[in-house]
């Protein structure tokens, strides 16, 4: 009797101690400013200004030979991918990226790339660029944490080489883009300036858990909420926005999340995010193919790009418009 009572007391004490320890762990984990003591974070990863980077990567290494002043495109699609994702780029070249005229409007597709330290990959990219003339490349190392540099390279390219276009879209190589539906919606919008749309994120907070892919230290971003921004899986804007974002970027502190960074620039420019349609059209998730449901959907493999595209081509002849 006495013995079992003692065991009960000890186990209760044990449970209590575990509870206290867990509680302390959670507090420690969520409130500490990890950047000060972080042993997992690569040192020197946090950079305060984009100008720092621009200096060492001023020159374009690859440029498409496109003259936007002759026959200005209606829409320019800028697709981010890494050097080793040739298969994904090929799938896009054969599907939604090959469409040059939609509703008699000109569309151009380009790929945004950084460089790789792998010499073989670098040589392949050069050959690919010469073969397809659709690669925009600069000298920064192509990593997830350099996506902001990649996006800003796209903005710079539009500003320098394609200001005559009407709209620009930034998207990823694992996204399906219904260029027919998008063109139709943009024509209806009929906007020429200060326009920005996509999958709107209005109340996102920085993720402070060190092990997350999206971890952002308080040093990198001290605020507790992000300004409104659009998911990087696909956003569209009137071409003037590219020059404005490039211009303001000199005074916007660097953050590695490219879509948040663009949101910070837009907030400073006082450009409001808008919906493209009364119903949702940009999806950061995967969906079954459906002709008039989405402009973008995510997690699409090269094989699925082909599959979705053949379904789109088949149905678009019978249904020339989604808006009637
Ligand atoms: C980003 O690119 C720069 C310039 O090439 C490079 O020095 C840096 O290491 C890259 N950053 C990351 C996190 O890979
Ligand atoms: C687009 O808007 C302009 C004014 O900004 C107007 O003159 C023009 O008629 C509109 N076009 C269409 C197709 O609605
Ligand atoms: C860039 O910013 C400067 C002020 O910082 C302004 O005078 C200029 O008009 C801006 N240019 C564009 C294209 O927005």
TrEMBL record:
GO BP annotations, alphabetical order: lipid metabolic process; protein O-linked glycosylation
InterPro entries attached to this UniProt entry: Glyco_trans_31 (IPR002659)
The entry's keywords: Glycoprotein, Glycosyltransferase, Golgi apparatus, Lipid metabolism, Membrane, Signal-anchor, Transferase, Transmembrane, Transmembrane helix
Membrane topology: Single-pass type II membrane protein
Presence of keyword Lipid metabolism: yes
Protein's cellular compartments: Golgi apparatus membrane
GO terms for MF: N-acetyl-beta-D-glucosaminide beta-(1,3)-galactosyltransferase activity
UniProt entry tagged with the keyword Cytoplasm: no
Enzyme class: transferase
GO cellular component, one term: endoplasmic reticulum
UniProt similarity note: Belongs to the glycosyltransferase 31 family.
Identification of the protein by name: Hexosyltransferase
């Amino acid at each position: 009797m006495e013995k079992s009572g003692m065991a009960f007391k000890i186990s209760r004490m044990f449970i209590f101690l575990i509870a206290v320890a867990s509680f302390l762990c959670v507090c420690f984990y969520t409130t500490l400013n990890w950047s000060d003591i972080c042993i997992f974070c690569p040192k020197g990863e946090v950079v305060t200004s984009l100008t720092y980077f621009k200096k060492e990567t001023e020159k374009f290494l690859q440029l498409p030979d496109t003259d936007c002043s002759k026959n200005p495109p209606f829409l320019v699609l800028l697709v981010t991918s890494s050097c080793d994702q040739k298969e994904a780029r090929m799938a896009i070249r054969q599907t939604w990226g090959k469409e040059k005229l939609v509703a008699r409007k000109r569309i151009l597709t380009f790929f945004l790339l950084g460089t790789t330290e792998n010499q073989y990959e670098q040589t392949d990219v050069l050959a690919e660029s010469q073969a397809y003339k659709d690669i925009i490349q600069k000298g920064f190392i192509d990593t997830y944490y350099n996506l902001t540099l990649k996006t800003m390279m796209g903005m710079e390219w539009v500003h320098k080489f394609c200001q005559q276009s009407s709209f620009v879209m930034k998207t990823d190589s694992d996204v399906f883009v219904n260029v027919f539906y998008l063109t139709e919606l943009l024509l209806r919008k009929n906007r020429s300036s200060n326009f920005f749309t996509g999958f709107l994120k209005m109340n996102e907070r920085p993720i402070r858990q060190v092990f997350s892919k999206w971890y952002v230290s308080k040093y990198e971003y001290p605020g507790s909420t992000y300004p409104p921004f659009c998911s990087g899986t696909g956003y569209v804007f009137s071409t003037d926005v590219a020059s404005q974002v490039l211009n303001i970027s000199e005074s916007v502190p660097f953050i590695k999340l490219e879509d948040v960074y663009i949101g910070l620039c837009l907030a400073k420019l006082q450009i409001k995010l808008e919906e493209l349609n009364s119903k949702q059209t940009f999806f950061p998730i995967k969906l079954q193919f459906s002709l008039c449901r989405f402009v973008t959907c995510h997690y699409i493999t090269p094989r699925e790009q082909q599959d979705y595209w053949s379904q789109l081509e088949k149905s678009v002849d019978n249904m020339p418009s989604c808006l009637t």
